[in-house]
Amino acid sequence: MSVLDDIIVGVRADMAVREAAIGLDELVDRAFAAPEPRDPLPGFRAPGLSVIAEVKRSSPSKGALADIPDPEELALAYAAGGAAAISVLTERRRFGGSLDDLVRIRSRVDRPILRKDFTVEPYQIYEARAHGADLVLLIVAALDDATLERLYTLSLELGLTPLVEVHTPDEARRAAGLGAALIGINNRNLKTLTVDLGMFERIVPLVPAGAVKVAESGILTAGDAARVRSAGADVILVGEALVTHDNPRVAIAELIAAADAGTR
Ligand SMILES: O=P(O)(O)OC[C@@H](O)[C@@H](O)c1c[nH]c2ccccc12
Questions:
Q1: N or C: which end of the chain has fewer CB within 10 A?
Q2: What is the CATH number of the domain that holds 12?
Q3: Is 165 designated active site?
Q4: Would you call 242 helix, strand, or coil by DSSP?
């Protein structure tokens, strides 16, 4: 079993526990009663590199990264540094996250919020919206075509912006086939956990010109940000480099400045 398969087994088990407490019908009502979703696309399309800054305590590849006792304080620092959106890892077993982190951050931070999880069922989409998320992650490698299309359409129906994540040429074609407006290229292979910034450079030509292009994972330095920017990234998704930095606000500002200087 790949790391991705293994994570999804745990995700489904945790979801079954939540579903026993709050059934789908109730969750649907809550999703429709949630505050209006925020649209991240205008910000992502504005000139200059945008940053999606991630709140992540640990990861399968790196183990413990940071305690983050006050996720909303971290997210506020990200916003002050110029983050265009905040990513909140809600997966519990491997990443140490929760929906509670999402709710806390959504109520204090005025940026669009991505629920970053391993989305495999409609339940999770309603759940994301019910807890205030504005974007959801759809990992193409984890989904067959019918499920991908179903989750993508449902996201749009709820006013969510799906971030469609790809890692191979075939996955990029599947994302393009959906007409996805926001496509992320993950430099980390979720089946083996290896990171290669060249992945973004190789896959980005296969992404339709009109889509917003997100470079995800492994961006640690200003040089890394400048590299993916010059390869065509509109947005970078950064976790580790920010949660381990002693001044995340400054760290974001430096990534943006370096990338913009590199492409001027
Ligand atoms: O911490 P990093 O290397 O900056 O990576 C952030 C983000 O890209 C990464 O957390 C991620 C990208 N896609 C995912 C899918 C599931 C879990 C996590 C991820």
A1: C
A2: 3.20.20.70
A3: yes
A4: helix
Q: Catalytic residue, from 91, 127, 216, 240: name it.
A: 216
How far does the centroid of ligand 1 lie from the alpha carbon of residue 246, in Å?
20
SS (H, E, C) 142-176: HCCHHHHHHHHHHHHHCCCEEEEEECCHHHHHHHH
Token pair listed for 211 = 């889509």
Token readout for 67 is 């305690």
User: Using CA atoms, how far apart are residues 240 and 196, in angstroms rounded to an integer?
Assistant: 15
Q: Which domain holds residue 74?
A: 3-263
- Residue 262 reports pLDDT greater than 80: no
Cβ distance 56 to 98 under 8 Å? Answer: no
CA distances from 129 to 16, 88, 160 (A): 18, 13, 7
* pTM (2 d.p.): 0.97
56 catalytically annotated: yes
Q: How many CB atoms lie within 10 A of CB 80?
A: 14
With beta carbons less than 8 A apart as the criterion, state whether 23 and 133 touch: no
- What pLDDT does 1 receive? 83
ipTM topping 0.90: yes
Ligand 1 near 189 CB (within 6 A): no
Residue 190 has what pLDDT? 87
**Around Cβ 135, how many Cβ atoms within 10 Å?**
25
Three-state secondary structure string covering 44-77: HHCCCCEEEEEECCEECCCEECCCCCCHHHHHHH
- If one counts the domains in the chain, the total is 1
Phi-psi region of 73 (alpha: psi -120 to 50; beta: other; left: phi over 0): alpha
